[in-house]
Structure prediction request, 263 residues.
Amino acid sequence: MHKDSSRSPAPRGEETGMPRMSLGGHLDELRARLVLGLLGFAAAFFVSLAGGRWFVRILLSPYRAAMQSAGIEAKLQALQPAEPFMVYMKASLVLAALISSPWLFYQLWAFVAAGLHRHERRFVHLAAPFCAALFVGGVLFFLLAIGPWVFRFFMQFDLGIDYLTYQPGVGKTVDFVLTLAVVFGLAFQTPAAIVWAERLGLVTLDALRRARKYVFLACFVVGAIATPPDVVSQIALAVPIYLLFEGGLLICRLRPKGKPVPS
Prediction:
């Protein structure tokens, strides 16, 4: 019996405007995006070497501000011969990550876009600069606002020993600042994650609203895990994360509704 070819189902790629890509194609795309991202990061790293010493001063500014506020002379010590050089290299790497963050986030979202529907790809062009701005904003928020507060708390803690002197090593201090700065930068991705999940239909706005109390608790759990074991650092991270969660809900509520995601 002759079948009417006009009624045969169209391939999924033609149905949804979504390109058909094999597993090998996805791996090739991932490899290409990784290479491009690493090349951009390498270029930013060579640029950041010129500003590494300046960025070290920025990283240590919360410590210096807290020491000056407490009326203590700001001093750090190098415990190993290569410690100043390692601090310089670590600072240059993080500065390179900040400089190249728009390019790195673009490569990430460009890889994600390869598996999205045609009408969803417009979101990707906005997501990359949005994520980069959030990451840089999180790092600066810690360095300028939260860092001095955290150092002040630790320095004013009374151990009950009158002969204790406060003079930490420069390497450990920079590691402490870098770790928290990167944690804040990643935590500030919360609105982007919420908007992305709601946009792709992974979760609804009503479900996110109903989950508020669980998200509030989870923010403090994340703050307890990702920061030193003190209440100040935990609250300083948990509260901004929850406010960013609410900001993500606001963006979802104000965003014009597009086409529903095809099944």
Observations:
- The chain is about 70% helix and 0% strand.
- The radius of gyration is 24 Å.
